[in-house]
Design brief:
The chain is α+β, with helices and mostly antiparallel strands. The chain has nine helices and 16 strands. The strands form five sheets. Strands 1, 2, 3, 4, 5, 8 and 9 form a seven-stranded antiparallel sheet that branches. Strands 13-10-16 form a three-stranded antiparallel sheet, with no helix packed on it. A two-stranded antiparallel sheet has the order 6-7.
Length: 353
């Protein structure tokens, strides 16, 4: 077991643009996935500490050429947190398998259940590491499905308030061709996290697991992340988007119980995951979704090679590990470009069917 950290990213009044393959500039995600966070973090790390240091760091991660290495660290994707008074609600992706005691034959509340793509930590822990689903949950979801409101435990924990943490707007922009001076009118999507104290401020967080060999990297990783916060995450950084402040925390007790859970029968992803050793037996009892990942290389007109990865919330019978995948296009020769498929997962207990 490594050393875990919880890292909060406070964007304040700064909006952000988190692009996803296929959604276009007009849209934005409400969060950043682990591969994009890894790439941005490693790029800024290289600028701070030099080419030789970053090549040594990347060489420590498992890859198709070096499959047996133990990664110095693993990171989750980013997820929403929301501050309610002195309490912080952390949202986690709902695993793609039903919790214990879930009544699959009852479809009355299924629509409301499916809309809960992210669960507050308290509910996530009860459903997937505790007593599981109960009749009160069923009744409350049924009520919420019919009336759009409820007053039970799910509501009190913030299960229906995920969308209150942010808003997404489309901002009109004008592009000017450098040669012809022709103008092009377009819209860009930005996510703005709630920042006013009176309205329950919100932001993003992610989990970091440092291995024994990676523990010595903590100071450098923290320095690089602070610099990344000054420059910004995501797109439209030249417009000032994506800037954030870092809060670097030891893992709180509630989280410590979750990562140390010993009675799980499955593992659920908190990151993207890619590997070369996935077998049909590994997938036989899994429940998963796959997303194609791509994107542009910074300061070029070249795209990275596309790769398909398992997404957050996917559930596997054993703990997935993952590798770095080389996505360098043929015409790019400055350096190798990697996308992280190194997984971070949590043990859970689900219905064994």
């Amino acid at each position: 077991m490594g050393v875990w950290k919880l890292i909060k990213l406070n964007f304040g009044r700064s909006p952000a643009h988190f692009g996803e393959l296929g959604i276009g500039m007009e849209e934005t995600s409400d969060r950043l996935r682990s591969d994009a966070l890894f790439s941005a973090w490693v790029s800024i790390y290289a600028r701070l500490f030099g080419k030789a240091v970053i090549e040594e760091l990347l060489g420590m991660f498992p890859s198709p050429e070096n499959p047996e290495s133990t990664p110095p660290f693993r990171i989750s994707s980013t997820f929403i947190y929301r501050e309610i008074g002195e309490e912080t609600i952390y949202y986690l992706p709902r695993p793609l398998k039903f919790p214990l005691n879930y009544p699959e034959e009852d479809l009355d509340f299924f629509k409301a259940y499916k809309k809960l793509s992210y669960l507050p930590l308290k509910i996530w822990q009860r459903w997937y590491q505790g007593t599981g689903f109960n009749s009160s949950d069923r009744n409350e979801l049924s009520t919420y499905s019919k009336l759009g409101e409820s007053k039970g435990e799910l509501s009190q924990a913030g299960a229906f308030d995920y969308g209150k943490a942010f808003k997404i707007d489309k901002i009109p922009k004008v592009g000017i061709d450098r040669v012809t001076r022709a103008t092009n009118f377009y819209h860009t999507g930005f996510v703005q996290f709630q920042w006013e104290e009176s309205k329950n401020p919100a932001g993003l967080y992610f989990l970091l697991e440092l291995s024994e060999s990676g523990d010595q990297l903590e100071d450098k990783l923290q320095a690089a992340l602070h610099l990344l916060g000054e420059e910004g995450l995501g797109g439209e950084r030249s417009s000032g988007a994506g800037k954030f402040q870092v809060t670097w925390l030891d893992l709180p007790d509630a989280w410590q119980k979750i990562v140390n859970f010993a009675d799980g029968n499955q593992h659920t992803l908190l990151s993207l995951f890619w590997d070369t050793t996935i077998t049909s037996d590994f997938l036989k009892t899994a429940s998963y979704e796959i997303q194609e990942r791509g994107g542009w290389i910074a300061e070029t007109q070249l795209r990275r090679k596309k790769v398909r990865m398992f997404v957050e919330g996917s559930v596997f019978p054993i703990q997935p590990q993952g590798k770095l995948v080389d996505v360098t296009p043929e015409l790019f020769h400055k350096h190798r470009i990697y996308r992280s498929g190194i997984s971070l997962s949590l043990p859970i207990q689900v219905q064994d069917k």
